[in-house]
Amino acid sequence: MRAAVELVSERDSTAVTVSEIAEAADVSRQVLYQQFGDRDALLLEAALDLVRRELLGEQGGLAAASDEHGSVLALGRHFARYRRFYRALLTGASAYALNKALTGLFLPFNRENLSRALGGRPDADAVADLATFLTGGAGAVVNAWVVDGPDPLDPEEFAGRLLRMHSVVTAMIMKEDVR
User: Could you tell me the domains of the chain?
Assistant: First the structure.
């Protein structure tokens, strides 16, 4: 998976072959096909592995951050660090699958945080819908930043943007009794 990340990042493109990835990883093509099925599945797993290991893992950015700013900054730093890789995936055939998979990874965190912040209001189904809505919206903002943002990306500025949006949404939710 690391070989795939490196090759895609070097080329700014997902146009790498299984043979090239296998050679860079010093394994056979057969091993890659047996493990992942095809190149797109390998690239998707490489992206998810990066997020799990470096962002969501016990020592990762989100887990290590003790405050909201630190968590959002860790997110920005991660996507900025691997921008070339993620940009290639987000502009290629794997974009939908990657967005869907990342939503699946981040949704439980957002659902838990919303549930805690809203203190039992509204009901669990409404919290789940709101978490899905907000996770998708935040994903779209991250995608736009990674794909079309300025070079180089500024994680601190991006964290500020996300926190401002969070403040507005929180104020709107708390303004009225949410049903």
Answer: 2-175 (1.10.357.10)
